[in-house]
Amino acid sequence: MTEQVMAAIDGSPVSEGVCDYAAWASLALDAPLTFLHVVDNHPQTAEADLSGNIGLGAREHLLEELSHLDEQRAKIAQERGRLMLQAAKERAVEDGVAEPATRQRNGTLVETLDELEEEIRLLVIGKRGETAHQAREHLGSNLERVVRGLHRPILMVPETFKRPERVMIAFDGSKTTRKGVEMLAQSPLFQGIPVHVVIVGAETGDNRSQLDWALKTLRDAGHEAEGAIRAGEVEPTLHAYQEEQNIDLLVMGAYGHSRIRHLLVGSTTTVMLQRAEVPVLLLR
Questions:
Q1: Contact 147/255 with Cβ under 8 angstroms?
Q2: What is the pLDDT of residue 214?
């Protein structure tokens, strides 16, 4: 089974950014690109006032009408999804992708991605979906559930595409972030892009040793790499470094599994996602 870049799109404004970042990733990784749209056919609540309808005949008639309305809504949703997928495919072709594929499924996004996980090399998804509140720091509920459930790299992107020119990896010496450095070093996705490695913590011998290992790993793979150890709270410290260095893509480990790690690492992941204005690549 060929692993592919999979891009989840809906009717939200961020879908344009999803299309463009997915096309960039597909070309850089030389991997097939598939656009995915999931139609969530949850039963709709009738908006009409039915309080004046009494009697079995009227009730049966209303149930028939409601069933017909649900069928019509489902058909409209399917057609709307088909048109979105076609537009995404055309946009990717304009970006240089030869044969992007499209898939439309019924159900929920989380369940669908769980079923398709073995086919995914990289998932590209927007920060907020179509039904999410558009406040700048609001994180779509779908995205958080996907990040917690999917064991594949996830690239969360903003509305507007900008080709990454400087990448930062938040590094703590853990197994996940060491694997992240090794992946970043070898991945064609970051070929020719300078990499910054940042440890948030005290200037200790252990932290310096961890940073030296990360920089050597990246430089041995041909990357221009520099690093820093910064004291402070994790999220504001990383955010400040990102702004200082004009970082336009952040790489970090996703939620931890133990209860303590979930509280510490999980909350940091959520805050970083909420406040990020650049793409964030999450690794598991």
A1: yes
A2: 96
